[in-house]
Specification:
Strand order of the largest sheet: 1-2-3-4-5-6-7-8-9-10-11
Radius of gyration: 19 Å
CATH superfamily: Porin
CATH class: Mainly Beta
Oligomer: single chain
Strand content: over 45%
Largest sheet: 11 strands, antiparallel
Distance between the termini: 29 Å
Order of helices and strands: HEEEEEEEEEEE
Structural class: mainly beta
Shape: globular
Number of strands: 11
CATH topology: Porin
Length: 215
């Protein structure tokens, strides 16, 4: 895992950012969970370095992002281990760059491939100072390759926010089918506790269809 700044240490969950891809960017910002932003990696003040290999299967990267008028400078690092066949494990740590709310951010996870089955799990933790809010995000996913052309997967995410009695919970089931140079995907995503609200007011359902071509 190459960590560019504190934000990139939080960018991907084991289940594929269900909340971010489905209930924030594309569906009216229904989720209140928001990972703290780090310094802008595109502000030409970021230095990223991949360390030389120290042990077989272990990769390490570090970064430094300069501050702006609204963000302080941040640093981050990431470790990835692939020394066991089928296993990928990672750990990342960084800092939030927002001047108004500083936080230490950690991310860890692992995935393991066993034949046609892939299992993945991740945990992200935000330890904010007194001006912010502590958050924890857990995620897992199981994928099964039925044939070379067909695969199915199921994943769940949970977001816990300090001070809230209701957690945001998401689950997704998806199918992918490839024929020739075309790949079709279909997903059903359910959420409850959106906006940390109980009952039907905090529930939502989404369907997603996709098609891609390889030439």
């Amino acid at each position: 895992m190459t960590v560019l700044n504190a934000q990139s240490a939080l960018d991907t969950t084991a289940a594929g950012d269900i909340f971010d891809q489905t209930f924030v960017h594309g569906s009216g910002n229904l989720s209140t969970y928001a990972a703290p932003l780090g310094s802008d990696a595109a502000n030409n003040k970021s230095i990223n370095y991949t360390l030389p290999t120290m042990l077989d299967g272990l990769a390490a990267a570090v970064s430094y992002s300069g501050g702006t008028t609204t963000a302080v400078s941040t640093s981050a690092y990431g470790l990835t281990y692939t020394g066991v066949e089928g296993l990928t494990a990672y750990y990342g740590a960084g800092e939030s760059g927002l001047t108004a709310s500083k936080a230490d951010i950690t991310s860890m996870g692992a995935s393991y491939v066993l034949g046609s089955i892939t299992a993945a799990y991740s945990l992200k933790d935000v330890d904010a100072d007194t001006s912010g809010t502590d958050e924890e995000q857990t995620s897992w996913k199981l994928s099964y390759t039925v044939t070379d052309d067909l695969s199915v997967s199921y994943g769940e995410e949970s977001h816990e926010t300090t001070g809230q009695t209701v957690d945001e919970e998401f689950d997704s089931i998806s199918v992918s089918y490839t024929t020739g140079g075309m790949t079709l995907t279909a997903s059903q995503i359910d959420a409850k506790g959106l906006g940390n609200t109980t009952g039907s007011d905090g529930e939502a359902e989404r369907w997603k269809l996709g098609v891609s071509f390889a030439f």
